[in-house]
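Here is one chain, start to finish.
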Amino acid sequence: MASAEKICQLLSQKKADTIELKKAAGLYGNQLLIKKVKGYSGAGEDVFINTLKEIIETGTIKGRDEYNWKLVKEKLPEINQLLNYIRSNNRVFIEEVKAIIQPYLPKELKAAAKACFLAGGGSLGFTIGNDPSFNVALQKIGDDIKGLQYLVAHELYHSLQDIGQSSRVYQKDDKKITYPEKATYYLLYNLWAEGIANFVGDMAAIKDLKEFSKEQAGQYQKNRARRYQNFQLLEALLYRQYHDSTANYQATYDIGFSTAFDETSYFVGYEMAKKIAQHQGNEAIAALLVKDPIRFIADYIALYQKLADDQSFVRFSRSTEEIVSRLLAWENKL
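Its structure:
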């Protein structure tokens, strides 16, 4: 929590020297925050320091506020309240998060993960590359402890997915995968990762919804209502990525999985995970943690084909099923 605490301390001051700001930027969690923000906006450590100094000394930021300092400053009382709660109730907080994710973990999984609570940036939560930490930003949470726990569960599950994937046994294949195949495979990887994490951290399960969790639960309800359209959008993205060698992976990813388009593919994966759990139990979701991510969509397709009379499933088109069938040739090879 040192990174968030330092930012809160600095924003409660009227002045900060460059040395102190550089030390704050160098803290472990803030370094991860800088990597994340720089990745989507180009605003690196210099912007972190300069804009933080500007808001400390002037109370505002005139230009682009890539690190969201104005919101952090506005929400300082709530952020400090959350930090105090976590500090005072650390063991209970951790046990309650564990209880959320435990049904979706294979018994044989041995793992440790590090949580970083941050203040700043545009993302609610994120992981960075192979770093074992998961990161949660506090400025949008308010006083919603339960909402925070479910958000932590979502991000923690991503760290556990990475650990589960590292335990897989890979097979060598002399055949070279094409760019369209690889790009489409990684879209399905993200469908697995985000869809199941969304299912695990489903805030609709919270009985006493507060402002943050109510807003998040509303996203689930909105996307539940447009699930057929969400599936069709994902299918269009998969089809073009697989069949058009000029299709740019990052541009396709941004349409399906970024906040610019409401992360609609997160909710496609959520619907799929919900159906798998409904018919095959939570242990089927747990098993997917250590399997090739391509199995997620393959198992979903196999499930609705088996239950041909069940009209509650959203089914993929034949062309999508064929793409998945072809990509299964790369199972445990990527």
